[in-house]
Amino acid sequence: MNAPAAAIDWPDQLYATLKRAGIRQVGYVPDAGHARLIDRVRADPDIHDVVLTTEEEGIALAAGAWLGGQRAVLLMQSSGVGNCINMLSLARSCRFPLLMMITMRGEWEEFNPWQQPMGSIVEPVMKLSEAEVYRATRPEEVEGLAERAVQHVFGDERIAALILSQQLIGKKVWVK
Amino acid sequence: MSALDRRAAMATLLADRKDDLLVVPGLGSTCWDLAAAGDNDRNFYLWGAMGGAAMIGLGLALAQPDKRVLVVTGDGEMLMGMGSLATIGVKRPANLAVVVFDNGHYGETGMQPSHTSTGGVDLVAIAEGCGIAAVLDVRDEAGLAGLASRLKDLSGAGPLFARVAIAAGEAPRVLPERDGIVLKNRFRAAIGLKA
After folding, report:
1. B51: chain A residues, CB-CB within 8 Å
2. Structural domain of residue B115, as residue ranges?
């Protein structure tokens, strides 16, 4: 492991939050920022981990899960938000509960300038799509914001995006 | 080509429907076909979400492993969500069937040809390539009857995919409920969940 030790292990806290929320399906396109959470999910026999070819599949997956009585979450990177826009109509038209956890690129010490165009419009796109947006910049904020997002989504059948800033993820993920 | 009539094909697939069958159509023609076969609270009609029908089916199939989930969609809708066949092929839910009514055209927008008719794109080969073990190419009444029989028992090793050759004619629109919240809540109530 070349990752520095973190004072607060927020990916494990996110996993614990998902477990407390009764999440049974997790859709994701593999993502470095979510790597730890994805590992936890894959190791959990009570969770269906569903690797997607594109993030919009996860919007539809979550809708199907809810129709069948299970709670789902969609993990993605900021670039995936753009792939979801039309499919978000499904959640909005039917008021499906939809929880998204988005790791940011293109905003803080980004080495790839091609990440900036989508990264810069993630929050406005999410707000236009009727998502309640929660942004975590410091490790100690993550769990509390995740709990609020869960409550917003499943307490009231709404859409929420928990945005995990690049500053939060930082060099822990990108430096090899 | 002795392609099948879409309304008759849907009626055949849903004949003697049991309560453990949950059905998700694609938007457009297959949605009207499903409504024409008789309304049912266990139908989740789509008026949008193009490319998403099979993935809704996957989420539903995983959540309800003791029920059968049937997605019936069109070639255009399936082409838009082609990656979902790979996702389903990897996840392998036995209780999911994805049936494509392939008329080679986009019926809702003026019957423009799709890749399956003009380019020879082969959804059967794609499904096989995605690792879906049971793949049927239905071209006639006998094949359709065989598919209907297979749908009665979805307890095999993995999901079922079928391409059904459909005649490229337009059927009268039969429009179901279009309030998404109503559709969601009545579906959940029908299978014993809190609406």
Report:
1. 56, 60, 87
2. 6-190
ipTM: 0.97
Q: Is residue B195 part of a domain?
A: no
Pairwise CB contact (< 8 Å): B62 & A95:
no
Please indicate, yes or no, if residue B87 is contained in any of the structural domains: yes
Please indicate, yes or no, if residue B1 is contained in any of the structural domains: no
Give A21-62 pLDDT, tens digit per residue: 999 999 999 999 999 999 999 999 999 999 999 999 999 999
CA–CA separation, A35 and A48 (whole Å): 16
* CB–CB contacts below 8 A, A to B: 119
Q: Is the pLDDT of residue A134 over 60?
A: yes
Q: What gap in Å lies between CA B139 and CA B12, rounded to an integer?
A: 14
Give the gap in angstroms from C-alpha A35 to the nearest C-alpha of chain B: 19
pTM of the model: 0.96
Shortest alpha-carbon distance between residue A65 and chain B (Å): 4
Distance between first and last Cα of chain B: 46
Number of domains present in the structure of chain B: 1
Residue A108 has pLDDT above 90, yes or no: no
